[in-house]
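Dear Dr. V.,

Thank you for agreeing to look over these. As mentioned in my earlier message, I'm a first-year student in the group and I'm still getting used to reading structure tokens, so any feedback on how I've presented them would be very welcome. I ran two proteins. I've put each sequence directly above its structure. The first is here:
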Amino acid sequence: MLGALSSLVRPGRDLRVDFVRGLALWFIFIDHTPGNLLGKLTLRNVALMDATEVFVLLAGYASGLAYGRLLEREGWAPAAARVAGRVGTLYVAHIFLFVVFTAQVGYSAALLDHAAYLDELALDPFGQEPYRAMLEALLLRYQPHFLDILPLYIAVLAMFALALPLVARPLLLLGLSLGLYLIARGLDLAPPGWGDAEWFFNPLAWQLLFAIGVVLARADPAWLARRLPWNRWVAALAVLALVAVAVLLNLVWHGPARGWEPPAALAAWLAGVDKTGLHPARLATVLLAAWLVAHLLPAQAGFLSGRLAALFVLMGQQSLPVFCSGIFLSFLGRLAIEVSAGLPMQVAVNLAGLAALVAVGAVSAWYGGEGSRRRKPPAPGLPAQPGAVTG
């Protein structure tokens, strides 16, 4: 079985990117399942970052590789058109996800007489003003909980289409991106939401992380090795800093229940490390973690080609259908854990969820492979589907 899955993995890629992205998608499923004990071990509980930062950084990296090559070969207009097509695909996927998830949660709330589901997931406006809510969802101004990641990606990818000519001038691209980030944070500038609501992920700030991923993808490896070399003492300090942050986070969050009151200043600072505007501490954490992983996990690491790693590599290579399926599955997992939160159910939910996500990835990979054999082969040097995974 695992051997058959390995055969569906697309070769000729940096499998580290796909493997880490697959892990991030599984973490998103876990974090979106309330009551899941495994959630205590995911990134959001041990670092000033979570799977979203990983996802956006790697989305920028994948986009830089795929569309950067297309830009070099065919110019801005064809490359921008392909990016626009990808934006359209993501938009359709988001609206489909919105409709099905709303139906899933609404039906469950009515069947189980548990209206709190609607309130917790910010779906109650849909029950009060369904036509207006649908319109606002189409405009991306209404984003219920768990349905705010794809709008972020749609927005940053649309901005990337306009910024494609700057891919060849990375310093200018980073400078403009950083400037927009500082303006967005300094002036509290963000796209408008519906009523008093705001975008949970402000794309005007998060575009910086995406742009960094693009630049890293297009940079010469030798140049990167010179500018960001490995240093074991720096790495040791980085690991110590990450461990210290994990300890502090858990002391602040769980210390009072154990009789330890954290300093008020520390608690106040951590409360201000916002996710909406991609706080600099969150940005620094994900970049530091990326540096460590890039050096500690070689591109040719043997286990990446193994059967167990293939589960996550396959998920990472088929991230859009896997992500959408994970949203549905996480709510089903919640319903199951509410029936029984014991260890057997916890194990069953997590194993069944992982198996289902891998199955979605396998079916998507198989279908894509079948389709590619019916299409004309791509020109030499170009990927078959630029950005087909996450941009």
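The second protein is here, in the same arrangement:
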Amino acid sequence: MSSRVRFGANYTPTAGWFHHWLDFDLDDVRADLDSIAALGLDHVRVFPLWPLFQPNRTLIRPRAVEQLVALADAAAERGLDVGVDGLQGHLSSFDFQPSWTLTWHRRNIFTDPDVLSGQEEYLRTLASALADRPNFIGMTVGNEVNQFSDGPHPDPDRITAEQAGAWLTRMLAACEKGAPGRFHTHAEYDATWYQDGHPFTPAHAARLGAATAVHSWVFNGTAQRHGRDGAATRHHAAYLIELSKAWALDPLRPVWLQEVGAPAPHIPAEDAAGFTEATVEAALDCADLWGITWWCSHDVDRSLADFPELEYSLGLLTNDRVVKPAGRTIARITERWRDREHRPRARTTALVLDSDAETAADRSACAPGGAFFEAWARLAAAGARPAVVLRELSHDAGHLSARGITEVITVDDVGRGADAVSVRDPTADRETAAPQSPGQ
């Protein structure tokens, strides 16, 4: 893996948001990409809408695929690489599923044989169309598709952890078949790390695909509990990176901070630049970081209705492409790191996570308010740089050595102080109670 960390943005089109695929205008896209490239970023993550690209199980619209390739070529002209999310899936509180999986055609999107074959062909087709583009990074299976598998989704397609793993394996194989050797990943929202019993597990996230993708949102209870300036809030992205590394079998596995943003009112507009700088600098203090992809490039046009309020103002640029304070901060950071190797000091002290490696049955301890989360946050607030290691690996000299860990401590060593646990509801951007683990 290159020692140069990547900086990018999740591309939110200024004209029509992701509905721009209905009225695709390459000139608008080029202008958007010009404004992103001007920040010094090197990649974008883009989002085809699954129902528009595959409106029937056996129809993948050629014109839609051509438009995706045209977007990638326009990005290349501006020095931007492109990662593509396939199954959209879930975006900014809205669900996008094709009609052939709903109502009279309702089928479990993770287990139905016909749906699986349709998904495979769709992912393979998109990957194949971009396989010869030098600026194509790879596919992400979909955006936070795990939210369809469990509560708090109002109508989930229930599956087991074994079925989730089988689905991910099969979808990643379809991406690899379409574009061999590319950087194919999958991405879940933080129920994977925080919600007891969730079928998509930390082991799936940290062991399948080319990298571990984490999505860091402090409106999940972190900012509410610790405040806008709290160490837990400003180190939340770094915490997820370090937490994810505990489950990786490869101690040098890359981690992609694939989504992170400054959501108002939890992070007020006047604090967005400071939060952005603190969050990025904390993430850069983590080893094996592939890249940081900010959510999102441009604000959502307020003429579009029914978004949660915080979704309108997450951009690095306004909807008319004016750079915001957070955007200026990102531009300054990217300039500072342009030719700089990313080789942070080893985190020599690791906090032991007392969790089963496969099922992670007590994940709520890792959530905001959970005993493990709060212990890690107290260490960070005191100026420590804690890594995370699973209990079963905490005496593995080879594993510890590979990660540069020379000391392990427990939650009891730090002290306990948890009283509540929450996980993010991605469908409404609100917090909902999660079951507390025994002893909390």
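From my reading of the second output: The chain has 15 helices and 15 strands. The chain has two domains: 6-337, 349-433. Does that match how you would interpret it?

Kind regards,
E.
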